[in-house]
Amino acid sequence: RLGQEGDGCLFPAAIDACADGRHGCQHHCVSVRGSYSCRCRAGYYLSQNKRSCTMIDYCSFGNHSCQHECVSIPNGHYCRCRSGFTLQPDSKSCRATDLCNGVDHGCEFKCVSTEGSYHCVCPEGQQLQADGKTCSKCGAGHVDLVMVIDGSKSVRPQNFELVKQFVNRIVDLLEVSPHGTRVGLVQYSSRVRTEFPL
């Protein structure tokens, strides 16, 4: 087609090859002397078909230093931690999340966080039950327990009350039954007296 210059001469008009929209460029179309070429936005490169754009995989360069996972984005990359871990302030290293504070762990006594997980523990002398959450009580086993207490006058009344409270607390912890734990009590002073047998 011909255009008109201000001095009256005719010249070929510049053809915008990108204007008709049939170029197929994914990002940008650049008109060049009656033809066109495709260009990509920053962070992308032109694919072999010369029309589509592929994001540059910055993680594939091998210099990202991410402890767990590297994620490419159009103008670089960022580090991401696996589930159960949190990204540290250096934006590269990961640390296990304290799941004991973040989940309903159900531990009867104490929850201990481990890398990406947690487990329950029991106080000394008790064992963790099969459910992994509750602790066995002292009375879980079958025992015969006979307690001997001093009932002489040298034990003052307030001290004798303390001894009785102690005995009651021990018995309350046990599962007392004829076929389970059996408890007996013997009191001594000037003579020995069986208060109750097993």
TrEMBL record:
Cell location: Secreted
InterPro entries xref list: EGF (IPR000742), EGF-like_Ca-bd_dom (IPR001881), Growth_fac_rcpt_cys_sf (IPR009030), NOTCH1_EGF-like (IPR049883), VWF_A (IPR002035), vWF_C/EGF_Fibrillin (IPR052080), vWFA_dom_sf (IPR036465)
Superkingdom, natural source: Eukaryota
Pfam family, one: FXa_inhibition
GO cellular component term, pick one: extracellular region
Annotated ranges, domain VWFA: 144-198
GO molecular function: calcium ion binding
Keywords: Disulfide bond, EGF-like domain, Glycoprotein, Secreted, Signal
Listed name of the protein: MATN4 protein
Species in which this protein is naturally found: Horornis vulcanius
Name of the gene this protein is made from: Matn4
